[in-house]
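A.,

Following up on our hallway conversation. Structure tokens first:
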């Protein structure tokens, strides 16, 4: 009986350790940085390239572009991003929401567009505080004026509100599995390189005071209410927003790549082995160079004597052949010069003798023609 109790206790302890290991693994997965899965600069770039908000929502969820990599509900499928709009006077607030479940949405970012009385348009892309931290804002500068601006300030404008919801998506859309972060960044860089003339300036303040009040009236935070402990401030307690987190990451990457001590160790390692190998190579190279030099004189002497004999033979025969050719060439050239005047005079005489006859013939022919007439 005691042995059975001991075996049972051991089994329960093994299951307990396994459950603890699983819980630790789950916590590590949930602590991954959520903001790595959606770059707001790409959101700003496709917004400036869209015709209207319907086209903008299509580009956000295009399976070919794959702008988003968010999977907030952990179903191993990238969430659909829907777009809704709030308008007040000359201010448009476009809200991007992640569809998590039936009637469950989480705000990801907002695009705030305002037109002042001087007809100057100012735009800001603001990241959600829960995902990106406090005041994570980009101001895009477009090389060309976006076409979407023309659709905002028209008469009888109706704010856009997406008709799609959970399990009810447009025909072009199909869900895809999320990628690793490094692969998503590679895709994002390719998309940003296509818009090289645009600039995305980071700021930490909002230019429109009315936009915050408009947004608060239509706010959706379903994921935030479910997991309040996974906010950006708790995931990254040392920084305020995603921009500061990127600065820390860049300094760490530069320090690890440009570490002087590490580079010196790598360069000194082959230098320490170089002398032993170079000494053997130098002795061997000298022996090889001296070996052909010792054999070279015997072979070169025979070649030089033989080459001189071959060159002297044609030189002795050349004078006799050249004299005969020169005499013969002079005889040939003098002959046509002596006969040339005779041949030139004969054609002149013939032409003179022929001309009267030809004239008579012409006169005769003309006379015959008159007689006939």
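Then the amino acids I'd put at each of the 373 positions:
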């Amino acid at each position: 009986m005691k042995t059975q109790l001991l075996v049972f206790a051991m089994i329960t302890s093994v299951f307990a350790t396994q459950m603890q290991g699983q819980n630790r693994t789950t916590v590590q997965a949930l602590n991954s940085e959520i903001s790595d899965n959606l770059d707001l600069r790409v959101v700003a770039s496709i917004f400036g390239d869209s015709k209207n908000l319907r086209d903008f929502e299509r580009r956000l969820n295009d399976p070919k572009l794959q702008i988003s990599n968010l999977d907030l509900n952990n179903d191993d499928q990238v969430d659909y991003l829907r777009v809704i709009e709030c308008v007040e006077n000359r201010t448009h607030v476009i809200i991007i929401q992640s569809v998590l479940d039936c009637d469950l949405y989480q705000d990801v970012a907002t695009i705030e567009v305002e037109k002042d009385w001087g007809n100057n348009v100012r735009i800001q892309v603001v990241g959600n505080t829960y995902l990106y931290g406090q005041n994570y804002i980009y101001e895009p500068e477009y090389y060309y004026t976006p076409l979407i601006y023309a659709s905002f300030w028209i008469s009888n404008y109706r704010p856009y509100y997406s008709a799609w919801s959970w399990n009810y998506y447009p025909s072009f859309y199909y869900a895809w599995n999320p990628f690793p972060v490094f692969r998503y960044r590679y895709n994002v860089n390719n998309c940003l390189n296509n818009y090289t003339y645009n600039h995305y300036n980071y700021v930490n303040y909002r230019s429109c005071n009315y936009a915050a009040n408009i947004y608060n009236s239509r706010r959706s935070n379903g994921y935030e209410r479910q997991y309040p402990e996974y906010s950006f401030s708790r995931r990254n307690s040392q920084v305020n927003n995603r921009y500061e987190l990127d600065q820390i990451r860049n300094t760490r990457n530069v320090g690890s790549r440009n570490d002087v001590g590490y580079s010196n160790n790598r360069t000194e390692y082959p230098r320490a082995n170089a002398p032993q190998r170079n000494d053997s190579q130098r002795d061997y190279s000298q022996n090889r160079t001296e070996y052909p030099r010792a054999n070279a004189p015997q072979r070169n002497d025979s070649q030089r004597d033989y080459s001189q004999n071959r060159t002297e033979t044609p030189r002795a025969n050349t004078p006799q052949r050249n004299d005969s050719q020169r005499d013969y060439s002079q005889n040939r050239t003098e002959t046509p010069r002596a006969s040339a005047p005779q041949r030139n005079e004969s054609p002149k005489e013939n032409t003179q003798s022929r001309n009267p006859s030809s004239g008579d013939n012409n006169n005769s022919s003309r006379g015959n023609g008159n007689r006939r007439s």
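The beta strands are 80-88, 91-101, 104-115, 121-127, 137-141, 199-203. Curious whether your intuition agrees with the design.

B.
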